Amino acid sequence: MKVLSRNKGLKTVSIGKKFDWADLNIISPSPFSWMGYVKNADFIFTCMYHGLLFSIKFNKQFAMFLIPERENKCLDFLKRIDLTSRVVRKVEDMNIVFGSQIDYSPINDFLKRERKISVSFLLSSLDSGQNIH
């Protein structure tokens, strides 16, 4: 990771855990600070579900290292948006993922449709709940 980031002229930032290879370690950022790091990153390497979701929300290039505790949840979402190619199983795969670009157009369209369905469900649930006395 360190060699790859150096070759690309990028600084490595680890959030939530200290790593010797990181240029900067942020152990306990505020939620807004954490989001700022994600939003302003050139590339995100994560093993966390929220790292995955916010990478996608901010249309970031990313790689996902799957750990057993989160594999089902993360892999299910990656399959739904057709991004299983972003999964890294070994360090050597980072060059491949780092060198490829995500086209966010179909993903953003999918998320827009899903948001519409969710909002509709919530509004109808709220409306039906008002009739209960």
Describe the overall structure:
The chain contains six helices and five strands; from the N terminus they run H-E-E-H-E-H-E-H-E-H-H. It is mainly alpha-helical and 133 residues long. The protein has a three-stranded parallel beta sheet. The protein has a two-stranded parallel sheet with strand order 1-2. It is globular, with a radius of gyration of 18 Å. The mean pLDDT is 91.
Main attributes?
single chain; 133 residues; mainly alpha; 3-stranded parallel β-sheet; two-stranded parallel sheet; 6 helices; 5 strands; 50% helix; globular
Quick recap:
The protein has 6 helices and 5 strands. The chain has helices at 2-8, 31-40, 49-57, 71-80, 94-99, 105-129, and strands at residues 13-15, 24-26, 44-46, 62-65, 87-88.
Strand content: 5-15%
Indicate the mean pLDDT: 91
CA-based gyration radius: 18 Å
* SS summary, helix count: 6
Number of strands: 5
The ordered string of helix (H) and strand (E) elements is HEEHEHEHEHH
What is the approximate shape?
globular
Approximate helicity band: 40-55%
- Strand order, biggest sheet? 3-4-5
The span between the termini is: 59 Å
Q: Which structural class do the helices and strands define?
A: mainly alpha
Please describe the biggest sheet, giving its number of strands, its sense, and whether it closes into a barrel: 3 strands, parallel
Low-pLDDT runs: none
